[in-house]
Structures are given as C-alpha cells and as structure tokens.
Amino acid sequence: xxxxxxxxxxxxxxxxxxxxxxxxxxxxxxxxxxxxxxxxxxxxxxxxxxxxxxxxxxxxxxxxxxxxxxxxxxxxxxxxxxxxxxxxxxxxxxxxxxxxxxxxxxxxxxxxxxxxxxxxxxxxxxxxxxxxxxxxxxxxxxxxxxxxxxxxxxxxxxxxxxxxxxxxxxxxxxxxxxxxxxxxxxxxxxxxxxxxxxxxxxxxxxxxxxxxxxxxxxxxxxxxxxxxxxxxxxxxxxxxxxxxxxxxxxxxxxxxxxxxxxxxxxxxxxxxxxxxxxxxxxxxxxxxxxxxxxxxxxxxxxxxxxxxxxxxxxxxxxxxxxxxxxxxxxxxxxxxxxxxxxxxxxxxxxxxxxxxxxxxxxxxxxxxxxxxxxxxxxxxxxxxxxxxxxxxxxxxxxxxxxxxxxxxxxxxxxxxxxxxxxxxxxxxxxxxxxxxxxxxxxxxxxxxxxxxxxxxxxxxxxxxxxxxxxxxxxxxxxxxxxxxxxxxxxxxxxxxxxxxxxxxxxxxxxxxxxxx
Length: 516
Ligand code: HEM
Description:
Layout: E1 9-10, H1 12-16, E2 25-28, E3 31-34, H2 46-52, H3 58-62, H4 68-72, E4 77-81, H5 118-145, H6 151-159, H7 162-165, H8 190-201, H9 206-211, H10 214-226, H11 230-241, E5 247-250, E6 266-269, E7 275-286, E8 293-300, E9 303-310, E10 315-319, E11 330-341, E12 345-346, H12 352-388, E13 390-391, E14 394-395, H13 400-429, H14 432-465, H15 477-491, H16 496-509
Parallel strand pairs: 1-4, 5-8
Antiparallel strand pairs: 2-3, 3-4, 6-7, 7-11, 8-9, 9-12, 10-11, 13-14
Helix pairs in contact: 5-8, 8-12, 10-11, 10-12, 12-13, 12-14, 12-15, 13-14, 14-15, 14-16
C-alpha cells in the first residue's frame, strides 16, 4: 500500500523553488511535504529541514526516521511528483512482513511445514490484525506512561476470547467464540497457543506485555486445574475471563525465587479448622498491584501449599520499580494475618509443590514463545536498518562485519523457533500426565537456551544500531527495549542456571545403567 496523499502533482523544479525563509518543501519517496509550519515542531530541529529545503530528502530521511513517522505526520504531504510512483510500501494492519526472516518459516510463502493447518493460519491472521489494531497502540502508550492496561482493552480481549485462548488448550475454550470463529475451541492446540503468544509480542513493549494479563496466564491455570469446588472454580474463571476481576501468581519472595522450597510465608490453620491465617511477603509479583485474586504459595505445617487469596483486610500491594515499564505492575505484597477459608486450598495440603511445578511447564514454554518472537523482531528491525543506514558512504549491510552479526542473529532465531515447534508438537500429542516427566527438562533447556540467545542477539543488535539501540524513542526503539528487558526472561519463571540444571537432572533420571 502507498501512503494516502493528496492527488495534486508537482514537478521537481517547482519543489526546488520552495527553499525560502517562508516556504520549506522537500520530497520523500516522490511525496512532496510542506514543512513550513512544522519547523518549530520538528523533534530534529528547524536547521536540518532548512538544509534539505527544495531537494529530494528520501535517503537522508530514511537514514534518520522510521517509515511510520510519515504515516503519523501524513497531513504534511501536499501531493506527489508528476509521473513518479511511491516505491516504499506502507504495511496495512495485519500484513505479514516481506523482510526475509521477519516471519517464522511456516509463514513464509515458499516454505512448507507439517505442523500448521488452516485454522492456525486463520488464527494467525486474526491475531495479527487484533494486535496491530488494538494491542500495539495501547502498548506503546502504556509502556511510556507506565500506566496499567486499560479496562477497555481487557474488555475487547475478553469479547474475542483472547483471555481464554491465552490459558492454552482445554475445556475453558469450548463454546467460546474465538476471534470471530478463527478456530473452534475444541480444535485449539498448543500451536494455536504459540500463535497467540508470539503475535502479541510484536508490539515490542516488554513491560506492557507482562502488564497485559500475564498474571492471569500463570495464575488462573492453578484454579482451572486444582480448584476442588466446581462452583468456586466457575465463579472465579467467569470473573477473570470476562475481565471483571484480575488474578496473579504470588510465589516468589525476597527469601526465595527459583528455590521455591525456601518460601517463608506461613498459613496456620485456626483451631476450628475453618481458616488459614496467612502471614508473610511476596516480591516481584507481576500484576499484583491491580489484582483481585492472589494464587499464593505458603508454608503449611508439613510442606508447601497453594491458596487462593482474595484481596481484602490485611493485604497490602506496593509497586516495585524495575528496569522495565511500571506498566507490568510488578508488586511487593504483604499478608498480615489474612484470614483465608480452607475451601480456598488448591490441590492437596502440603503438596503444593506439585501445583507449582505443574504450572511451570506452560509458563516457561510461553516465555520461550515470546522471547523467540521478540528475537525475530530484532532481526527484522536490524535487517531493515542495515539496508537503510548509510555510513562511510556505504549501507551498513555492505559491511561484512555487519553481515556476520546478522548471520549469527538469524541462525539463533531460526534454530530456537524450530526447537520450539518440535516441543510444541510433543505437547499436542503427549498426555498431560507424561508431559511433566518427559517435557519438563526439554522445556527448561529451551527457555534457558532462548535467553542465552537473546543475550547474544541483544548484544549484536546494539552494536549494529549504535546510539539508537540505547535510545527509547525513534529508530532504535525496539532494540533499546529488547536490550533493556531480555533479562526478565532469563530470570522469571526459573533462572537460566536453575533451568539448565533441571534439564540435565531430568536426563540423568533416564540414563541407562548399562552404559558404563
Ligand atoms: C515529513 C517530514 C519529517 C517528519 C514528519 C519528521 C519527524 C521527525 C520525528 C518525529 C523525529 C523524532 C525521532 C523519531 O521519532 O524518529 C525526527 C527526528 C529527526 N529528524 Fe525529522 N522529520 C521529517 C523530515 C526530516 C528531514 C527531511 C530531515 C533531514 C535532515 C530530518 C532530520 C531529523 C533529525 C536529524 C532528527 C533527529 C534524529 C535523531 O535524534 O536520531 N527530518 N523527525
């Protein structure tokens, strides 16, 4: 699609005359811009615009700006050069990128994949459109302002079944209209789930990405799988899926992160056996500040247990400032003699470790989906920039050292997507009971390896982008965000070292005795 600009045409000679005190025109990709009234407002200053007045500024413009700047300021366009056609494509909402490696191979027209059916492709299109239209604009705004996700967006996501889909396959999807029939809830598998995760990441706002109901993705699973009272389970899931109530997972403490066995929040039964009294703290809890329900890991008399705690007396939530956006709603929680009915126990008393561990696989896999997709976005942006940016009279891409960096970035991205798809295929066909045994290790290793790859990609990308890779606005916005935030994935849901160890320990369990 070309930029929609007025139909008036000019000759290049006519444009050249607008190089005066009162009139500053220039050409970008055959479109004529009248910047005379924009000089004061231009973030790059007046002088630079005066320097290009009357000329074709295409190459200098793309050396400094993203194409989306022209979309935003389209009202400065007054026409086009007679007989010439725009050559730069403006993507439509929902379009696939035409940049090589910008889409996973299964979405690249020349490639085939055994894993993806029509419903996956239909869902991908619908998710891309929904993300471009509704999620990205809000993500960009909230990432900057640090405000929390709006109720309006939550309502929209609820209406199209996106909140339901983010919980992965299951009965909670039956009978729900998913993005206007893009996929039937009974057909929804982990590849659909992967698509939902990966498409949303394209907003490239890591803090908002977590702020946008990540607490639900990791917290509500425990209710769906371990709440014994069907009435309570239905009430809570209805409230959360409809967007009226928010939920989060509160496991980590200042005392214990990946080492969940070291938790210190206590739950002591009252003498009449009807309640637990909860005391303690939780730290780094995503979405905690605005949550109504806390799925909380506690110490009971003989082990760990998991309780559903409703916001009320004795609970205080305070935002924690981290290196990503406050939009994530990262929280410090204190529980001070909080009275919780015993019916709110999820799973068995003292066997909460199973509740926590069974939750981890989907959480870690979702994080791998997201990290890999974000890596790909960095590859896309870097490929575009390397073709656009001129230094030492050459495009960056014409420098072998830059091509080497891109080669490494592409290889890391493609190999991890392939590994992800292989594991996702096993998740679709392996019974849930077997998954913890056989997939816990591979998923842990995948997540560990993804975030190591993210580390390499962030490092190479910033070198390609220079100062722009460290600047929150303008051309390098995506690179800066990725470089500042990829570490969250290397820590949350299990630190790299813990996951690596888990993967190898699981392999040790299955080592045949006879190999020596
Ligand atoms: C329709 C025309 C233009 C519009 C709407 C526009 C808009 C902007 C905006 C929004 C920025 C802030 C950075 C960003 O968001 O990318 C910017 C920065 C800048 N612009 Fe423009 N601009 C235009 C044309 C030009 C031209 C022709 C030049 C020629 C030299 C120029 C030079 C700069 C410079 C030097 C910066 C600072 C870049 C940086 O900090 O990296 N702009 N412009």
